[in-house]
Write a structure and sequence with these properties.
single chain; alpha/beta; Rossmann fold; seven-stranded parallel sheet; binds 2-amino-2-deoxy-6-O-phosphono-alpha-D-glucopyranose
């Protein structure tokens, strides 16, 4: 696992975007996208590189981590709509190549299985972008999630619903249930790139990176993966005990070594 601590959140987004762009240029056929505010800077950078540097996503399949259950189709806060508005409508990727779990399916377990099958058919996912919830969730894998879980229905915690209420008209409008890739599904990706910014993420980042591997901090599963890049700004790195070491390692990164 490589920890990179940037001075600002904007720098974290630019760095993350550059890392993902390198994976796409290296021939990634499938990429994993996350929603929430954490990856927005990375998406801005990828859009800029598409516009200014001929970065192309033609032929790439994109898979979202998760989706709310029972939001009306086209709801502005559905993750399928969010990712189109914020990212994929600004690059050269077909709508049909952007996949998300079907949160309006009549048979949700079947929709979860179908999503796993779609990832398996197009995958493996070369690079998966991740944010982190204040309680350590990735995707919508709340604390207690099996460390080898696959795509399934989860119930959101009150804290996650409260954290996400800012996107909805009222807190009660936040759905209670979701479909999310499991921690096992996420772990199948070749490269995990987590972005965490702001002081509200500091405790979760420290637990994920330096705490025990535990279902009670789902992001700690990153410690079991062979290729992980965690990018934080200074405020999200504030609770790390080994921050000086991570800064030293990055400042002395061998020139031949990518991310
Ligand atoms: C949301 C999403 C996650 C996201 C996290 C943090 O609920 N399901 O994929 O990483 O919570 O969101 P934000 O980046 O807005 O803080």
């Amino acid at each position: 696992m490589e920890l990179v601590i940037t001075d600002t959140a904007d720098q974290a987004g630019v760095l993350a975007g550059g890392i993902i762009a390198a994976d796409v240029r290296a021939g990634a056929r499938a990429i994993g996208l996350a929603t929430g505010s954490s990856p927005l800077g990375a998406y801005r950078e990828l859009i800029r590189r598409h516009r200014d540097e001929d970065l192309s996503f033609a032929g790439v399949q994109a898979f979202l981590l998760d989706e709310y259950i029972d939001l009306p189709a086209g709801h502005p806060q559905s993750y399928a709509r969010f990712i189109r508005d914020e990212f994929t409508s600004h690059i050269d990727i077909d709508d049909a190549a952007v996949h998300s779990p079907d949160g309006n399916a009549a048979d949700l377990p079947a929709a979860a299985a179908a999503y796993e099958a779609a990832i398996a058919a197009a995958g493996p996912v070369a690079v998966q972008i991740l944010g982190i919830g204040a309680n350590g969730h990735i995707g919508f894998n709340e604390p207690g999630s099996s460390l080898r879980s696959r795509t399934r229905v989860k119930t959101l915690t009150p804290r996650t619903r409260a954290d996400n209420a800012r996107f909805f008209d009222t807190p009660d409008d936040v759905p209670t249930h979701v479909l999310t890739q499991g921690l096992g599904t996420i772990s199948d990706a070749g490269h995990l790139v987590m972005i965490a910014t702001g002081p509200s993420k500091a405790a979760a980042v420290a637990a994920a990176v330096e705490g025990p591997v535990s279902a009670f901090c789902p992001a700690s599963i990153l410690q079991m993966h062979p290729h992980v890049t965690v990018i934080t700004d200074e405020s999200a790195a504030a609770a790390l005990t080994q921050g000086d070491y991570y800064r030293f390692a990055h400042a002395n990164k061998p020139h031949w070594q990518g991310y």
